[in-house]
Structures are given as structure tokens and as C-alpha cells.
Amino acid sequence: METITDLFNSYLPEPHASLMNGILLGRPLFVTDTFYNQLKAVGLIHIVVLSGMNITLLSSIILRIMVPFIGRKLAMMLTIGIIVGFIFFVGPEAPVVRAGIMGILSLVGLLFGRKALTIYSLFLSALAMILINPSWLTSISFQLSFAATLGIILFGSPVRNGDKTQDELVKANSVVSYLLEELRISLSAQVFTVPIIFYYFRQVSLVAPIANILIAWLIAPIMILGLIIIPIGLISWQFGFVASWSVYPLLSIIVFVTEGLSKIPYASFTL
Question: How far from 141 is each of 95, 157, 255, CA to CA, in Å?
């Protein structure tokens, strides 16, 4: 994973490189204290912790592309396969494995709406991971992953309407429906991550809903572009550098939103 991290560090300036490595690989942020505090102030610190939420956002866009062509069940199986491939591709380290497991569980909940079974599997998987490595219980990234996934399962699952879900009742290429779906997933995750963020940072953001509305749709494209850039960069640094231009504007939007909203008076309060 260090090779991939170094690759993005060589392509992008800060804080863009740290955002990319955090969103895609779950790597710690190497940014100034100012920008780190701005992320906390606007309620976006959770996006740079690779979690079930990030993987679910990635899965949702893949599903929306594949479902109209191959059907829901086959699309789900292929998406799970992509998540597993992602884990081994970037390296099966703790944050990636946790995020992959959480993402697969929330994906099942999003597709079938079977909340009781998915919640049971979520807690069972969390218990298994804690037994494997008890130190994960005190890991902020693990707690955020678990909380985000629980929120997605409870409030991010599509409402069933007869034999069809809401996702099947709208056109697959509807930009509005896609943005609304990504927003619902992001806000569902945020509801459950806010208490954890407050516990550790003693800070509550009043502009977090606005921040998430503005950047929720960016996470999946950033992850997809990142996964495209990696193999290109490993083959040819020069071609990878050119490919990295595609993700720079998206990361710049996150930087712009973070810096802009953090300047709003009383954007957050600390206890």
C-alpha cells in the first residue's frame, strides 16, 4: 500500500494527496492542523477514514450502472466481487478489510432491505473482528465504519414498493435520483457518526448537513478514478500523472467547500 500512497503523493499537492489516500486507502492525513480542524468544523472528517460508507457509495454507483443490464442479483454478486478485488488490490490491511466487510453488509441491506438480518450480520462480523484483534474496538476508524454502516442499513435502504424498490422505479440514468440516493446514504451514515466525532473531538458541526450535500456525490467518482489511476501509474508514472488530472478538480471541490464553510461564523461549537 505504501507504493500506492507514494504514487498519489507524487501526483497531487497537499491537501489533495492526503484526501485521496484517506478516501481510497484509509491512510492518516498528513495535512496542516488548520485544514484538519476545518474538516472537523464542517463535519467532513469521516470522509477521509476509509469506511463502510465510502465502500457503499462506491458500490451504489457501480450497481446503478450494472443493474439495468444484468439484473439486481447478478449485479450484487459482481459488486461484491469488485469489493473483494479492491481489498486485495490495495492490500488487505486492517482499515481496508474492515471497510470491505462493512461495505458488503450494507450493500446487502441496500439491495434487499432486510434490515434485521443485515444488522445481525453486522454485529456478528464486528464481534468476529474484535476477537481477531481486540485493539480494533478502540480504533476510531473501526467505530466510524461500524456506526456509518449501521446508519446506512437503518436509514439508507431503499423502501420497497411491491416487487420493486425505489431505485427500480426511477430511470437508471437520472442524475437527480442518483444525487438524492447518494445524499440519503451519506446523511444516514452521518447521523450515527456524529456522536462518535463529538466524543473524540468534543465538536459539533452546524454546517455538516450542507457540507455533506455538497460533497457526498464526489466520493464514489473519486474512488473509481483512483482505482483507474493506480494501475496506470504502476505501469507508467507519466501516464498515471496525466490520469491524475481527472481527480484533481473533484478533490479541489472538497478543499473549497471545507475551507469556505469553515469560515462561516458559528459553523461549529466545541465543548
Answer: 7, 23, 21
Residues 6+ apart with CB under 8 A from 129: 98, 101, 136, 142
Which burial class, exposed, middle or buried, applies to 39 when counting CB atoms under 10 A from its CB (0-12, 13-18, 19+)? buried
Instruction: Provide the residue-wise pLDDT of the chain in tens; the chain has 271 residues.
Output: 568 888 999 999 989 998 998 888 777 677 777 888 888 888 887 777 666 566 766 776 677 778 778 877 788 888 888 888 877 776 666 667 777 777 677 666 656 666 667 777 778 778 877 887 788 788 777 787 788 777 777 776 554 444 444 444 344 446 666 667 666 766 777 778 778 878 887 777 888 878 888 887 788 788 889 989 999 999 999 999 999 999 999 999 999 999 999 999 888 887 7
> What is the value of pTM for the model shown?
0.73
